[in-house]
Amino acid sequence: MYELIVLALGLPVVTAFASLATRQRGLLKVMNVASSLATCGLVFAIAAGVLRDGPFAWRWLYVDALSVLLLVVVGVLTFTATLFSVSYMETEANEGHVRPGLLGGYYALLQLFAFTMLAVLVVENLGLMWVGVEATTLASTLLVAFYFNRSALEAAWKYVMVCNVGILFALLGTILLYYAQLSAGGGGAALSRAALEALSGRLDPFLVKLAFVFILIGYGTKAGLAPMHTWLPDAHSQAPSPVSGLLSGALLSCALYVLIRNLGIVTAVLGSGFVQAALLLFGVLSVAVAVPFMLVQHDIKRLLAYSSVEHVGIVSFGLGIGTPLALYGAAFHILNHAVAKSALFYLAGIISQRYRTKHVMRIRGMLAAMPAVGAMFLVAVLAIVGTPPLNVFFSKFAIVAAAFAAGRPVLGAVLLLLLAGVFAGMMYYTTRMVFGAAPGGLSPTPPGACALAAVALSLAWVVGTGLYMPPVLDELLTRAAAQMFAATGGL
Amino acid sequence: MEILAVLLLISVFVLTRTTRLSTAVHILLAQSAVVAAACAVAGWQAGEVHMFAAALLTVVIKAGLIPYALLRLVRLLKREREVNPVVGPNGSSLAAVAAMVLAYGLIERALPAVVSRDAVATAVALVLIGLFLIITRRQAIMQIVGLITVENGLYLLGLSTTRGLPLIIELGIFFDVLVMVTVMVILTFRLKRSFQTTDTSILKRLKG
């Protein structure tokens, strides 16, 4: 197990340096796809090990079902993003949007970004988690800025400023937590989760509450919870499409993961009431803020970015309801959203290359212009708005049903109403884009095989787990939900 | 320790009055040096070796590499030495004084059990004034200076409440800060090339 984790962390770093040194474009692609496929395989091996033997803990490392769920998300998305990049970045380079010499740097940053996210998920210590989350920002900033045009620079500057200030708040919270730990007499293992949980009876509630507020704001910024989501639409829309997919599916989920881990200590000290109320508030607010922006949005990638704010809100809402059903739904939703949304961002990349625009109103007749991509886009949108029998429907349904079952019918009804608004907005734009006659002047280049494969793979997962829940996945989700229950639902 | 706290308060106070980028970076250098000294003094008092390592790292990274990079950047930005703040020097100084009063008030109420009250209050003041600088200064470099000031404040807070985090976490934080500044210097350089200015108030094309 230890070897698997070290390999999964080491492989992306080695590949990153190798990418910088490689001059041949062919080798660069093969190497990166092979490496991310291997990382993905290692992640699945870790998952199998944890499901077989239970949580693994060794010094600074800790992996349980919840970390494994997120590891799978990051592993799978890194693979699809790398696979997609092969076609996408090739086209970008051929069309002159990216200097071919920068491709090595692109892959290197992508691998380092994957490494930082994986590192966040396998450490036990809350301080090291902070270091990892900060590193994810730094690794992804230059990816957001990758086109180095005016809009990309603006997005990257906002991203790095907002997330850094946010994350410094999280550091403040973490320091306060350490102060609480020392005051309670636990000097031995600083900021270790196990040590803090063992001490939870003696931690000063006031200090922990103060720490909680800063931690929630800090990691909430990184997770894209409203009203701290301001960096998100800019960064997601300006980054190259594979990176947008990773930011939205993997990075936001990782930030939520770190938040959940921190909440475990807070709940143990303060009880679940305050924590759940805060999660519900930020959850509903995020969905409510996203809806109007989605209804008037004209940039396809910004539309998807606001949809991410909405989905982070739904997960936060599920965590706030806190019943086992809601948490199962939240765990499933993290996974479903990550795969479906990354596929949508990849598709948006293909579309904007073909139509040479990201403007929703100028994209028409997708089915006529490129039938396969149009059909996949339709399926992916139907999935993300929660149409049965696709998997996102089941996780959303579980969360909403749990709200009603937990005696919060008003909140459940509000969420349903907001989701109906999202549905209306997304479907309106989608039908305009997918159907009708294709305009003239489209780029003749067909999407590459690798790009189509990456999207098809993601959608196969979205449709497949909607129709049939494999027992292994059910087991993983149940155990991850149990970990979340300990962290947010009380003891 | 009290003397160092006073020096730090003076440094941020002067920072709110500076209108030249290079002066601001020099003050930041001095501020980081004082933080390093505070770390060394605290380490000497507590007899902890790892704090000397942290002090050394502070000197090398925050009083060495980062100011060096920022000063080189300032030299590249010809005709852009003047800071053009949203809130002028007098208003900023007033805000700084308010932040200091607020910091002492907060400590009195929130953390009455803390031993080194002056150091903690200084740390909170640094954080507040750093945030104020980020919000009210338009120049990219001034925002970086504000960010490092916040970071220095948090570092001092950790130092005065908990004698600093364990060395491995400290190392991670130092590394992050170093990479953060590197990334931001690259971005600032690119801003200058694309927009002919590093005034971030022009960054408002992306909306809705």
Find the count of extended strands of chain B (DSSP E, 2+ residues).
0
Mean pLDDT of chain B: 86
Shape of chain B: globular
Percentage beta strand of chain A: under 5%
SSE pattern of chain B, N- to C-terminal: HHHHHHH
Helix/strand order of chain A: HHEEHHHHHHHHHHHHHHHHH
| Strand content bin of chain B | under 5%
What does the main sheet of chain A amount to?
A: 2 strands, antiparallel
Mean pLDDT of chain A: 91
Largest interface by Cβ-Cβ < 8 Å: A-B, 49 and 40 residues
Indicate the structural class of chain B: mainly alpha
Oligomer: heterodimer
**What about the largest sheet of chain B?**
none
- Determine the N-to-C terminus distance of chain B: 49 Å
Overview of the structural elements:
The complex is a heterodimer of chains A (491) and B (208). In chain A, a hairpin with a 2-residue loop joins strand 1 (56-58) and strand 2 (61-63). A two-stranded antiparallel ribbon of chain A has the order 1-2. With 491 residues, chain A is mainly α. Chain A has helices spanning 2-21, 25-53, 65-94, 103-122, 126-144, 150-183, 193-199, 205-223, 231-238, 241-270, 272-295, 300-321, 324-355, 366-369, 371-384, 391-405, 409-434, 449-467, 471-488; strands at residues 56-58, 61-63. Chain A is 79% helix and 1% strand. Chain A is globular, with a radius of gyration of 21 Å. Chain A is built from 19 helices and 2 strands. By secondary structure, chain B is mostly helical. The radius of gyration of chain B is 17 Å and the shape is globular. The N and C termini of chain B lie far apart (49 Å). Classes of the chains: A mainly alpha (491), B mainly alpha (208). At the A-B interface, helix 5, helix 6, helix 8 and helix 9 of A face helix 5, helix 6 and helix 7 of B.
